[in-house]
Amino acid sequence: MSAPPAEPAARIELRQERDVAAARIAVSRAMDAMGARALRKTRFVTAVSEIARNALDHGGGGVLEVYRLERPLRIMIRCRDEGPGIADLDQAMTDGFSTARSMGKGLGGARRLVEAFRIESRPGSGTTVEMEAKP
Amino acid sequence: MSEAASIYSVDKVLLVAIRDNITDTDIINLQEDLSERIVNEAARGVVIDIAALEIVDTFVGRILAQLSSISRLLAAETYIVGMRPAVAMTLVELGMDLPGSKTALSLSHALRSLKAKGLA
Ligand SMILES: Nc1ncnc2c1ncn2[C@@H]1O[C@H](COP(=O)(O)OP(=O)(O)OP(=O)(O)O)[C@@H](O)[C@H]1O
Ligand SMILES: [Mg+2]
Q1: Could you tell me which residue ranges the Histidine kinase/HSP90-like ATPase domain spans (chain A) (predicted)?
Q2: How many other β-carbons are positioned within 10 Å of the β-carbon of residue A63?
Q3: Is the CB of B86 inside 8 Å of chain A's CB atoms?
């Protein structure tokens, strides 16, 4: 993925469960600062929660950065981990697929909830997810 | 009792208020506390209040589904109340419309339904 466009507005280390809540709060604040509408914020923060939890649960922890992009104004997050990566991305994005005996709705759901969704992953080299939404 | 949720007794109904930062560990405690109280207090109704939740992701969605199933198995009719409209729309898009759970708009709506059935 290309270089981040600017300094992040927030950067959260995802090491334990409460860091997922910290990521949600940071994104929620950044969207409030943009005057985001309630439904857009709920959708985006929910997607962020899924991706941050995946980085923690499947990626062994990671880092989430929040960016404010201009022209047109939008929010972007980048979530990186250096975990085992995903061998088959199409399969992982499919609702119902989980290697954790969970529901497997996180990745597919997150993609439906945001305006732009990019994922990059290779076995052994970790996973990076970028998501964007209008305020 | 875990900090991420508290259980109150109102008119023989157990009211569970879920807070925003609930974790895996809290859930186990909450499931235990709630099932013990249903049995000990012979509660016939449970109301799970999620008004404090700004979002419900798949993690919390699963917690809600599990809590409803546990209470139902212990013969307590269970309602989820206080869901924000934006949360409902988001849950549908996640593919989590909580099929096994009854919902009511507010605590008083849920209590009225439970009273009408003689469960409160
Ligand atoms: N950051 C990651 N690193 C490694 N594997 C991942 C990562 N994110 C997702 N995966 C893989 O993709 C699968 C699907 O992810 P998804 O979030 O859809 O479901 P889940 O996390 O298993 O369950 P749910 O999110 O519904 O509780 C996971 O089971 C895991 O195998
Ligand atoms: Mg997941």
Answers
A1: 42-132
A2: 19
A3: yes
B51-79 tens-digit pLDDT: 999 999 999 999 899 999 999 999 999 99
Model-wide pTM > 0.90 = yes
Q: Per the domain annotation, does A106 fall within a domain?
A: yes
Nearest CB among A38, A105, A112 relative to B58 is that of A105
CB B45 within 8 A of CB B74: no
Quick: pLDDT tens for A77-91: 999 999 999 999 999
Residues 6+ apart with CB under 8 A from A35: A135
Ligand nearest to the CA of A59: 1
Q: Which residue of chain A has the CA closest to B53?
A: A42
- CATH code at position A51: 3.30.565.10
| CB contact at 8 A, A11 and A63 | yes
Q: Is residue B116 part of a domain?
A: no
| ipTM of this complex | 0.90
3-state percent breakdown (helix, strand, coil) of chain B, nearest 5 = 45, 20, 35
Q: Do B56 and A108 touch (CB under 8 A)?
A: no
CATH number, domain with residue B105: 3.30.750.24
| Closest to B37 measured CA to CA, from B5, B81, B65, B4 | B5
Is A70 contained in some domain? yes
